[in-house]
Design a protein that fits this description.
With about 290 residues, this protein is α+β, with helices and mostly antiparallel strands. It folds into two domains: about 190 residues, no CATH class; about 35 residues. It is built from six helices and eleven strands. The longest helix has 24 residues. The protein is elongated, with a radius of gyration of 26 Å.
Amino acid sequence: MKRIAVLLFLCCVFFSACAGPKWVRTTVAEQHEFNISLERSREKGVDIPRHYDHPHKIEISDLRKLMKDLKYVEESGFMGEEKQSPVFQTAEIDRLAPGLADALAKAGPSQRVRFISFNQGKTWIFSTPRKTEGVIFVEPAGRLNIAFNFINSKRESTETSAIDTVYSSRDPLDIKISDTPLSATAPYEEHHKYKSGKKAPMWVVADLEKLKESTGIEPAPAVETGEKAAPVVAPRAGKKVAPVEKMAPRQASEDMLKKDIKDKLKFLKELLDEGLISEEDYAAKKQELLDKIK
């Protein structure tokens, strides 16, 4: 009887977990490089109210600005130095921004936008298939939220297309620790803060009014110093004005190029010795680098 009671208890726990909130998604745009869906949380067949400011119309130019300004911290180089890198490549923004803007205009008050974007990440010598996944939604008072599950994560060999992609089961709003935290440096954005006061590493909030202002910023007028600028004298007709050539230190440039190629050749040899590339790849890339030396 005790065993039966334990089994019944475990079954109750299992079915209770299965009966918890689930995200139900509807695909609104998909291509080889990206997938965009509307998702809502449901529990026992009923939508959980979210009270988003949806549907929301956002200018594509504003969304492009936000995506271009998003930066994250990643490790780079042999010594693991940290550097700030853009979350999205220019090509990603061009194909993703219109779809995200359209999805926000179609979303209901309890729906948010989920997306995944594929790109070909640039490494020192080779390129690596990568992916970025996250959600975007607008709260009242013009606060646009964007949170990520992962940023420029390496794709598996089986992940060749974003069509019919399998999204992460984890809610990006619950991520407390990340190896690739966002860097909220734009004047209109800030990290979301949890109730504990701790910053969310993968979740930023943008003030849409300030974002629009930053999109339309005009160059500041020149500051007057009290001194009159010298008049610009136009060249006489028929007289050619010789262009001023800026002489660069040629020798220093050549030395830097040779050092860069030498470092890359060493790294290439390490990849070959570790079996990470084939002899053919090594020979082809080596010759390509040597051809740059004049």
